[in-house]
Specification:
It is a single chain. This protein folds into 2 domains: 384 residues, TIM Barrel (Alpha-Beta Barrel), CATH 3.20.20; 87 residues, Immunoglobulin-like (Sandwich). It contains 19 helices and 20 strands. The strands form 5 sheets. An 8-stranded parallel beta sheet has the order 11-10-9-5-2-1-13-12. The longest helix is centred in the middle third of the chain and has 18 residues. It is globular. Bound molecules: alpha-D-glucopyranose and calcium ion (CA). The site of alpha-D-glucopyranose has 9 residues, from loops.
Length: 561
């Protein structure tokens, strides 16, 4: 096997720029704020940062509605700040990936303004327009309601897969295609190391505009698709998108001499994710988010199943991804009901399975959801739902959809210290979203001081991963033969070149578990890292007689020869 590319071994940290760190006192995070926290990120061991969009935008969807792809929104800084960021990231041997919204622009983009101005405008065909008294077909948007919007300026309908303020680009127009690729090239030339591609499966729809078939489900899931009583065959993961993935792969590989990479935000089952990465050989997107993890119950059986599926669909040289949260859903620890021991175990899993971990800012502190009521939410999706339903219904739907309808709650300011504004912005000014009440206990400074904090645990596991090649890139084998309890998950990681094997033991129960390791080795065994601080202290020492007790909810890595 050839050498494993850097991005398969990296740890990705997602920054939501609006909420990360405010440097100039307007209550909104910015690029200089990010620069001021790079030392923290480096110290934690995060190697690659992905920043949600900071391009010029009317911020109706907080940056996912881009009005100019080659400039920075003024509240976040300017190109000089950006170039400084690239330099500072690279100086620390870290990498930077940008969030690219290829599917749609903002309504405020000059392209759309031109496009809608008249049917004869040269940019008319840059978007998807259809005539008629009625919408051209039954296609729904991903955020409830019809995806076609009537524009009385020219009496035609335009298509928007997401919010009405985000008209879809017409990628079947070669000018659009070329322009979007030249935007990617522009940012590669500015030194970025890759891209996260927003709703990648929505770029091409059925070219014949056939109706989406009926679905009996009111509440859809990621695998079925998002339409209410409607499947998404014609609007989501159309095969032309798989072709696009291949073309972009060739383009990005060429432009960056095989350095840069792409991860696609795709909603679909494993088969679709695999298609995006290349069915026969990995010649599509480098990675695709596996959101399956987000819906898995917190049990050994469910997490074991995730591994089996990941290994089945993404065997080497493909590479799985491990996503437990982002800026679109309930906070990771909130789904674990705030339980810090479980959160530690969750991280132990994420840092030791084969694949690339993605950590959303604040997860490493165990930041919980905010409590922003529907009535006050700033999220464009909440506002959209409120056009159709009263607040109480919107709140209910939000619950049902894992927080995807009021995303303010997972976007509250990063908690740097216990002060009034959590150190996110100066005291006396209003941050753009209110700081969580949890800030007193739950912030970087306090957790750095406390040895047994979640933050230190996360840091230990990242360190163990970075220091041991097997944990980064070794092959993975489930080890069912050593465990007597179905509540313990065991797997090993090893490389061909190294003698030692790494054994991961995860106790998904509130009971102590005795484990006899003699079936796999009678040789030397030592602790590498554990979620439990007392155990951690034994790191490096040899175990007594091949037996180990796992404490409740303990996750640990052992090394044996
Ligand atoms: C993606 C983004 C989300 C955004 C949407 C539309 O799902 O993660 O934040 O609102 O696409 O661009
Ligand atoms: Ca600011």
């Amino acid at each position: 096997m050839g050498t494993i590319p850097w991005w398969q071994k990296t740890v990705v940290y997602q920054i939501y720029p609006r909420s990360f760190m405010d440097s100039n006192g307007d209550g909104i995070g910015d690029i200089q704020g990010i620069i001021s926290k790079l030392d923290y990120l480096q110290d934690m061991g995060f190697e690659t940062i992905w920043i949600s969009p900071f391009f010029t935008s009317p911020q109706e969807d907080f940056g996912y509605d881009i009005a100019e792809y080659r400039s920075i929104a003024s509240e976040y800084g300017n190109m000089d700040d950006f170039r400084e960021l690239v330099r500072e990231v690279h100086k620390r041997d870290m990498h930077l990936i940008l969030d690219m919204v290829l599917n749609h622009t903002s309504k405020e983009h000059s392209w759309f303004k031109e496009s809608r101005s008249s049917k004869n405008n040269p940019k008319r065909d840059w978007y998807i327009w259809k005539p008629g008294k009625k919408p051209p077909n039954n296609w729904k948007s991903m955020v409830f309601g019809r995806g076609w919007h009537f524009d009385s300026l020219t009496d035609e309908w335009y298509w928007a897969a997401f919010l009405p303020c985000q008209p879809d680009l017409n990628w079947r127009n070669s000018e659009v295609y070329n322009e979007m690729l030249s935007i990617l090239k522009y940012w590669l030339n500015e030194g970025v190391d890759g891209f996260r591609l927003d709703i990648f499966g929505a770029i091409y729809e059925d070219p014949n505009f056939q109706n989406n078939p009926f679905s009996p489900h009111l509440f859809p899931n990621d695998v079925r698709g998002n339409g209410v009583f409607q499947s998404t065959e014609m609007t989501r993961n159309h095969p032309d998108n798989f072709q696009l993935a291949k073309k972009l792969r060739t383009f990005i590989d060429e432009q960056s001499q095989h350095h840069a990479w792409m991860v696609g935000e795709i909603f679909g089952g494993y088969a679709a994710l695999r298609e995006f990465c290349g069915r026969e050989i990995p010649d599509g997107l480098h990675l695709a988010f596996m959101f399956q993890t987000v819906h898995a119950p917190f049990t050994a059986a469910a997490y074991r199943k995730l591994i089996i599926e990941a290994e089945q669909w993404f065997p080497e040289p493909y590479c799985p991804t491990w996503v437990f949260g982002n800026h679109d859903m309930n906070r990771r620890i909130t789904r674990l009901r705030g339980d810090r021991d479980k959160a530690k175990l969750d991280f132990a899993y994420q840092m030791t399975v084969r694949g690339v971990p993605f950590i959303y800012n604040g997860e490493e502190l165990g930041m919980t959801n905010g409590e922003i009521p529907t009535a006050q939410a700033q999220d464009g999706v909440t506002k959209h739902f409120k056009k159709y339903f009263p607040d109480w219904v919107v709140s209910l739907v939000n619950k049902q959809f894992n927080g995807a309808v009021n995303r303010d709650n997972c976007r509250t300011p990063m908690q740097w210290n216990p002060d009034e504004n959590a150190g996110f912005c100066r005291t006396g000014i209003n941050p753009w979203l209110p700081v969580n009440r949890s800030v007193q206990k739950n912030n970087v400074i306090t957790e750095q001081e406390e040895k047994d904090s979640l933050l230190h645990c996360v840091k230990r596991f990242i360190k163990a991963r970075r220091e041991n090649e097997a944990l980064k890139s070794g092959s993975l084998k489930l080890q069912p033969n050593i465990i007597s309890s179905s509540q313990v998950l065991a797997y090993s990681r090893e490389t061909e070149s190294e003698e030692d094997v790494f054994l991961v033991l995860l106790n998904f129960s509130n009971k102590q578990q005795r484990i006899d390791l003699s079936p796999i080795t009678t040789g030397r065994i030592s602790v590498v890292v554990s979620t439990v601080l007392q155990k951690q202290k034994a790191a490096g020492f040899k175990l007594n007689r091949n037996k180990i007790s796992l404490l409740p909810w303990e996750g640990c890595v052992l090394q044996y020869s």
